[in-house]
Amino acid sequence: MGEATTDQVVMRFLAGLRVGDLCSGTVVAAARSEVSVMLDGFSARPLGVVVETLDFSWRRRQAEGAMDGQRITAEVIAVDLDRGRVRLSTAATEHAELWMFLRRLRRGAILTGVVAAIERFGVFVALDEGPDHPVFPGVGFITYPELSWRRFEAASEVVEVGQRVSCEFLQFDTWNGEARLSLRALQPDPFAVFAEGIAVGRTLRGRVTKLVPFGVFVEVADGVEGLVPLSELGVEPVSAPEGIVQIGDELSVIVTDIDRARRRLTLSTHGHN
């Protein structure tokens, strides 16, 4: 009964918090990946947890063994009612200028800058406006899918360090304290243009660009690829595309499906040699 009552009190306390609120509290435990905080106004158990990437200061204090009992003020990043806790970030208070800049950005805004670094997980952009990032090479960040509409193997095929770029702002990544950007959003989508003038049943010529266990990809227009499933690769059933076609082969294909929402084109070679 008492436990249920405590849960209800927790829910009422959490219901009064909003993302963006500043909360104060005392550190009561420090694990390797997160810090537990007893929030002011609720002493039954620690409801706050600091897990943000930018909170390197916490890890430093943890290494020094001086975290327990530390008073902090942090920003509410998320309220998790299911788990009964509040995700906090001291990065928002320790890097107030950065947070203020990122908060002002609105989806669709055009930001310019210089490619600062190319990593295996994405591209950092040093923005012309706004502060430097305290940890990363740039405040702007482009994931690989947002670099280009076209298929590429390495980011260096699309951009290079030092190149000036204009990107569309997608969202404020509170986990890393960065502006998620899209380079491709400012470029025409070749699939959309292609789909306007094509219909199911149309015969096209294309070049095989990739072999996968479930079929082959064929480029039928500049920047537009379609999938020929294994079942559509020949009249006789095949278990793998190798031996039937090779990368670079020219094929005649029939359009069997156009999924404009998912930007997917399905093809077949049936009826062609």
Described by strand count, sense and barrel closure, the largest sheet is: 5 strands, mixed, barrel
Cα-atom Rg, whole angstroms? 26 Å
Compute the separation of the termini in Å: 75 Å
- The percentage helix is 10-25%
Protein structure class: alpha+beta
The CATH class of the largest domain is identified as Mainly Beta
The fold-level CATH name of the largest domain is OB fold (Dihydrolipoamide Acetyltransferase, E2P)
List its salient traits.
single chain, 273 residues, alpha+beta, OB fold (Dihydrolipoamide Acetyltransferase, E2P), 3 domains, 15 strands
Can you walk through the features of this model?
This protein is α+β, with helices and mostly antiparallel strands and 273 residues long. The chain has three domains: 2-94, Nucleic acid-binding proteins (OB fold (Dihydrolipoamide Acetyltransferase, E2P), Beta Barrel); 97-186, Nucleic acid-binding proteins (OB fold (Dihydrolipoamide Acetyltransferase, E2P), Beta Barrel); 190-268, OB fold (Dihydrolipoamide Acetyltransferase, E2P), CATH 2.40.50.140. It contains five helices and 15 strands. It has helices at residues 2-15, 56-64, 91-94, 96-104, 190-196; strands at residues 22-30, 35-39, 48-50, 71-80, 85-89, 110-119, 122-127, 140-142, 164-173, 178-182, 203-212, 215-221, 224-229, 250-259, 264-268. The strands form three sheets. A five-stranded mixed β-barrel has the order 1-2-3-5-4. A five-stranded mixed β-barrel has the order 6-7-8-10-9. A hairpin with a 2-residue loop joins β6 (110-119) and β7 (122-127). The longest helix is centred in the first third of the chain and has 14 residues, at 2-15. The N and C termini lie far apart (75 Å). 26% of the residues are buried.
